[in-house]
């Protein structure tokens, strides 16, 4: 049977940290899924892989042309790797930030043990690279991240071994200070490279999603098209409000929120109702940010958006058009 590639949208992760940190609110991308001709009961994760679907929102991306189709399929491993790393950051971000701040001041016992799993991310990105090319810009930025990780991971392991073995008791922490300074500098390089990689992944996903929306409309998959378009538009709205809340055009935001709600309500079944209920919480938090863009309100907006994405992710494509 013919295979339709399903690419999921962006999910933001909320990390209560100082906004100037590069790790704040990293985006989560869902895994690439496949279904056979959007037929009910044939929802298979990973386009032939044995992985289960990850966290994120279901947003389809049928691509026109074999090369793009193959590239989209290979994004599964890459997006899954990004999800796991960003999800971990969302959960433990505050601890990671506090520990990194300690390491910026020099060696601190135990601080390196409360840092992100860069080694796991490195392994996963290398696995993705072995599977083959995705899209040029995405592959380029992934390779740049890997180049940084090839330096960062050994330093992380050296500092962890130094800490675990209590070698600082023999040299007064001298080697620890040296390794901590090296580690912090490499983390800063990683943050910059990883931000570009996430942007490239988001761009590729968005482009493929727009293609799929048009195709679904032509194919009569009105519910699925509405759900996908709503989620894409909501993602863009939340992203723009988060970036510059004080400069947001409130009337334009309200107009877009109302249009998204109309789209969601056009999904005339119980899954549409679930999305609308989750969407209402996002709307409330967006309005709160527009009234007072403090850090807590911004974080609440991202968290509510995440909850919407999770609700969306729990729906298979065929359910959007079921009666």
Describe this structure in words.
α3 (136-164) runs antiparallel to α5 and α6 runs antiparallel to α7 (250-265). This protein has 9 helices and 5 strands; from the N terminus they run βββββααααααααα. A hairpin with a 6-residue loop joins β4 and β5. Helices cover 65% and strands 5% of the residues. With 323 residues, the chain is mainly alpha-helical.
Short description:
By secondary structure, the chain is mainly alpha-helical. It has nine helices and five strands; from the N terminus they run E-E-E-E-E-H-H-H-H-H-H-H-H-H.
Task: Describe the SSE topology.
Elements: E1 3-6, E2 10-12, E3 27-29, E4 33-36, E5 43-45, H1 66-104, H2 118-131, H3 136-164, H4 168-171, H5 174-218, H6 222-243, H7 250-265, H8 270-291, H9 295-313
Antiparallel strand pairs: 1-4, 2-3, 4-5
List keywords for this structure.
single chain; 323 residues; mainly alpha; three-stranded antiparallel β-sheet; two-stranded antiparallel sheet; 9 helices; disordered N terminus
Radius of gyration: 21 Å
Count of DSSP-assigned helices:
9
Shape: globular
**Strand tally, please?**
5
Terminal CA distance reads 24 Å
């Amino acid at each position: 049977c013919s295979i339709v590639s399903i690419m999921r949208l962006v999910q933001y992760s909320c990390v209560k940290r100082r906004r100037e940190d590069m790790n704040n609110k990293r985006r989560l991308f869902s895994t690439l899924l496949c279904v056979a001709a959007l037929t009910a009961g044939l929802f298979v994760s990973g386009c032939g892989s044995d992985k289960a679907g990850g966290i994120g929102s279901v947003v389809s991306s049928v691509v026109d042309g074999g090369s793009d189709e193959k590239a989209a399929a290979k994004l599964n491993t890459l997006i899954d790797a990004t999800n796991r790393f960003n999800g971990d950051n969302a959960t433990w971000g505050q601890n990671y930030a506090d520990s990194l701040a300690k390491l910026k001041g020099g060696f601190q016992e135990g601080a390196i043990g409360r840092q992100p799993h860069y080694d796991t991310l490195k392994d996963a990105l290398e696995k993705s690279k072995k599977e083959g090319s995705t899209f040029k810009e995405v592959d380029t930025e992934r390779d740049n991240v890997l180049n940084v990780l090839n330096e960062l991971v050994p330093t992380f392991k050296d500092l962890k071994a130094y800490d675990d073995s209590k070698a600082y008791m023999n040299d007064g922490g001298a080697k620890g200070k040296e390794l901590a300074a090296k580690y912090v500098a490499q983390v800063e390089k990683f943050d910059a490279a990883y931000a570009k990689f996430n942007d490239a992944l988001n761009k590729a996903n968005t482009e493929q999603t727009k293609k799929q929306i048009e195709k679904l409309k032509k194919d009569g998959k009105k519910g699925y098209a509405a759900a996908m378009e709503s989620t894409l538009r909501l993602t863009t709205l939340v992203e723009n409000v988060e970036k510059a809340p004080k400069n947001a055009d409130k009337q334009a935001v309200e107009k877009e929120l109302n249009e998204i709600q109309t789209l969601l309500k056009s999904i005339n079944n119980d899954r549409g109702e679930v999305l609308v209920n989750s969407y209402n919480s996002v709307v409330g938090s967006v309005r709160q940010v527009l009234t007072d863009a403090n850090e807590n309100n911004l974080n609440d907006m991202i968290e509510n958006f995440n909850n919407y994405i999770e609700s969306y992710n729990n729906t298979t494509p065929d359910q959007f058009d079921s009666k």
